[in-house]
Specification:
CATH architecture of one domain: Orthogonal Bundle
Mean pLDDT: 84
Number of strands: 2
CATH topology of one domain: Arc Repressor Mutant, subunit A
CATH superfamily of one domain: Winged helix-like DNA-binding domain superfamily/Winged helix DNA-binding domain
Number of helices: 5
Shape: elongated
Strand content: under 5%
Strand order of the largest sheet: 1-2
Order of helices and strands: HHHEEHH
CATH class of one domain: Mainly Alpha
Length: 136
């Protein structure tokens, strides 16, 4: 199926995701997944403007003007990708902080369980650990 989608993407114009969905009968997620797989081996241009997807021509078949236009499109696509990466990293910060808190919490509760197995003499230590957890 990956090859079919690749063959449907033209070199001379953009094809929209909707067109690819109609031509293949696939849902949006599947088309995006196949495009992502295709990009591992081939240059496929797409921009956030929503025009769609376009294969890169061989440089042997391009005029100097076409090369300049494609150069700008690829440069823009890379800038958009870098912007998304920066945004994803920002969004991950709060998740990473939360994960660290949960790791401490899990570790403490595991220790409480181990202490509790030791019997009554550890009851005071369990209470102290519980108070510490409430302040996390």
């Amino acid at each position: 199926m990956k090859e079919i989608i690749y063959d449907l993407i033209p070199e001379d114009r953009f094809i929209t995701k909707k067109e690819l969905m109609n031509l293949t009968g696939m849902d949006e997620r599947s088309v995006r997944r196949y495009i992502s797989d295709i990009r591992k081996d081939h240059s496929v241009i797409s921009l956030s403007s929503g025009k769609g997807y376009k294969k890169s021509k061989s440089t042997d078949d391009m005029t100097p003007d076409e090369m300049k236009i494609e150069y700008e499109m690829v440069k823009h696509q890379i800038a958009e990708s870098n912007s998304r990466i920066r945004e994803l990293k920002k969004n991950m910060k709060s998740s990473i902080a939360r994960l660290k808190i949960l790791e401490k919490y899990i570790h403490i509760w595991y220790n409480i369980y181990e202490i509790a197995k030791g019997g009554r003499k550890w009851k005071m230590e369990i209470v102290l650990v519980q108070v510490h957890i409430q302040h996390l």
